[in-house]
Specification:
Length: 177
């Protein structure tokens, strides 16, 4: 009766708040970026970087690790892979929350607008992380937390609409076909 309806109104109010994704934006200036060729996954010395080098670089950028290889840094001596180019302005947007696949597709479509004028991006990326302690990752297998709870995929989309897809899961987890 009355108790049930009070409970429902409490949950509907609070769940709406809890499910609202948190969005943060930042502009990265003079960012060293790997040079990529959409048709060259392995990379080529002096021409382009490999998919693995890009994936490692992305991790550093997303975690705001310095890319200048200073020996005085206690955090990291990582530097951007070669060949690279300095991008005057890069845009980083992080959305945290429970996001349905349809919204991810929508985001990807909106990001592709950066290939048009006046932005004319060469390539862009979209990384989707599952929660580290999520009970499932892909297929119907349980997701093992073990050390890091890796559970993510990353799209790299090029101006010609070719794309790369990275997938990362823990050692004991199933990976999609």
């Amino acid at each position: 009766g009355a108790e049930g309806s009070t409970l429902m109104s409490y949950f509907s109010k609070n769940q709406i708040q809890a499910l609202k994704p948190k969005i943060t934006f930042s502009t990265l200036r003079d960012l060293q970026c790997p040079v990529l060729q959409s048709n060259d996954l392995q990379g080529n010395p002096e021409e382009s970087c490999s998919t693995e080098e890009l994936f490692e670089w992305l991790g550093a950028v997303m975690n705001q690790v310095s890319l200048d290889n200073k020996s005085s840094s206690f955090l990291s001596t990582y530097c951007c892979p070669e060949p690279n180019t300095v991008v005057e302005k890069a845009f980083l947007c992080t959305i945290t929350g429970f996001i349905i696949p349809e919204k991810i597709i929508q985001l990807l479509e909106q990001l592709c607008c950066y290939f048009g004028e006046p932005k004319l991006a060469h390539w862009l990326t979209l990384t989707v992380h599952g929660f580290a302690d999520s009970p499932v990752s892909w297929r119907e297998s349980e997701h093992g937390f073990h050390k890091g709870g890796e559970n993510l995929y990353n799209f790299v989309v090029f101006r010609n609409l070719d794309y790369w897809l990275h997938m990362a899961v823990g050692a004991y987890d199933d990976c999609p076909p």
